[in-house]
Amino acid sequence: MPALDAILNEKIALLTAKGRKRSLIATQREDGVFITRGGKRLVSMSCNDYFGLSQHPEVIEAACAATKKYGAGAGASRLVSGNHLLYEKLEAMLAAEKGTEAAIVFGSGYLANLGTIPALVGKNDLILADKFAHACMLDAAQLSGATVLRFAHNNMSHLRLLLEANRSEHQHCLILTETVFSMDGDRAPLAEIQALAAEFDGWVMTDGAHCVTPAQAGVHSHTQMGTLSKSLGSYGGYVCGSRTLIDYLQTAARSVIYSTALPPASIAAAIAGMEILQRDENLRTKPLANAQYFTQLLGIKLAESAIVPVILEENEKALKASAMLEEAGFYVAAIRPPTVPENTARLRFAFSALYTKAQIEKAAELLLTQGFVCAP
Ligand SMILES: *Cc1c(COP(=O)(O)O)cnc(C)c1O
Prior knowledge:
By secondary structure, the chain is α/β, with parallel strands linked by helices. The protein is built from 14 helices and 14 strands. Strands 4-10-9-8-7-5-6 form a seven-stranded mixed β-sheet, with helices on both faces. α2 (about 55-70) runs antiparallel to α11, α4 (about 85-100) runs parallel beside α11 and α12 (about 280-300) packs parallel to α14. It is globular and about 55 Å long. The protein starts with a helix and ends in a 7-residue tail after the last helix. The mean pLDDT is about 95. Pyridoxal-5'-phosphate binds near residues 108 and 136.
């Protein structure tokens, strides 16, 4: 056996022993709600396609039409020959939606963070990131070469403490947080973060990958990152901000320069998804309403977003709950460390606009009657 594989096998064995080995399971999505896995049809409550737009006939049609007209791939990076005319339309729509001057689309949300953060700060600078900020923000922070410190989740006194102790030794300061936290569903106190940034001469960048509705009115960070891959049902990422920021990122974000542009189908699908959301105000409110209905049924803290964690602490218990739900026709992923902190293993529900009341009630009832959540 080659030496590298032998070493990797040891690493895999170690991960397996810790219950941290992950595996890919073939899954077919049937529509915005149902998936098929291992021959079983399940209501998926673990998908970030909050409006089922990836399965929407209009979105599919737009992707097919763009492929037929323009081909399957982009052929080059945006700066070389891949800057399809559809980008202009999508970027104008994104900027309008977020109320910013401009927007830039990247190959994915991950690439948006990876390109943007090191373009804004570097050596001699300070990054303060929320403890629960997404892995790709942290990867990007490391890549930037700045000093990276983490503040306790949503803890403003800790953020202040870190600013007081470290800000003056650094040139620039960037605060990183998520608008809606992907594993907890809670929201960052953006107004307070902005105030601290102003007080300490720092900048704020927010990751809004799980915002299903426009950013909260009146509280806009300077640099708003988001994804086309979740509520818009397509693939790709973006940053919205000032004209100057976007002009700069077009030249300075390495993930734009050195990576091939999105396939035309992805851009067209995102445009179609945005058009559907823009004309249907009612649809926009449903993921949160469904999540709140579920939390009321369970008697747990009212949902702040479409994401609801049911925290079961031990890995085993989370896996058991997930298996129990699967037996009853629901797919809800058990999320374990290192994705979440030790002893906070959980079921992570992501509520689609498309679930029926009966589906939500059934999922809640199963958790209550099977003893995973105490009755309210
Ligand atoms: C999913 C996610 C990303 C990455 O976006 P992709 O488009 O899937 O690459 C970034 N940040 C957060 C908070 C996410 O949940």
